[in-house]
Known about the structure:
Layout: E1 2-8, H1 18-24, E2 29-30, E3 33-40, H2 46-58, E4 62-68, E5 75-78, E6 80-82, E7 109-111, H3 116-125, E8 130-133, H4 140-154, E9 160-166, H5 184-200
Helix pairs in contact: 1-5, 2-4, 3-5
Amino acid sequence: MKVLMTGFEPFGGEKINPSFEAVKKLDDQIVGAHIIKAEIPTVFRKSIETLTKIIEKEKPDIVICVGQAGGRCDITVERVAINIDDARISDNEDNQPIDKKIYEDGKNAYFSNLPIKAMVKEINDNLIPASISNTAGTFVCNHIMYGLLYMINKKYTNIKGGFIHVPFIPEQVIGKKNVPSMILDNIVKGLKCSIKATVENEKDIIVSGGAIC
Length: 213
Ligand code: PCA
């Protein structure tokens, strides 16, 4: 079993991105699965191209992309990616698409095919806060999640794939008021729990993870 874990380059003026910092620290072997780690440019299109090349080379069974969601207080397992780029800030190569479809021939949205509820449960059972998120935003994280699920839908139907957002780590919030953070070790543990849940749950569990608003 091969699991590809990706994190992003820093963006938006940050010096580090906790997503790749955490991915880098994962063991090479988790619950018997071989873990491959990669850093993805925080750039529209190029992010999907980079991911595609790695998938073609490594042929993973599972792909979990990870990104920073500054301002969120827990680890959020994303449910859905939508077919739109709408960038509030420029990416790392000064692209700022507004209301552009990611793929003209793609569906409006694709759902993660990871066992998202089992992932959240496993993280919470290990005493780390996590929840389901029903929006990955409209920046590069939604973009790559959509690109991954488009690829899975069209070509790599055996791959299980999806996306996790992680909070800032404490060093990023020094001097910022009322901005939550999570220590890197807990983010790493959370990712490890997600891998375990994905490897061990062919089908998702049925528990509520919904939100009223
Ligand atoms: N977070 C951004 C893009 C890269 C990252 O780590 C996002 O949430 O879209």
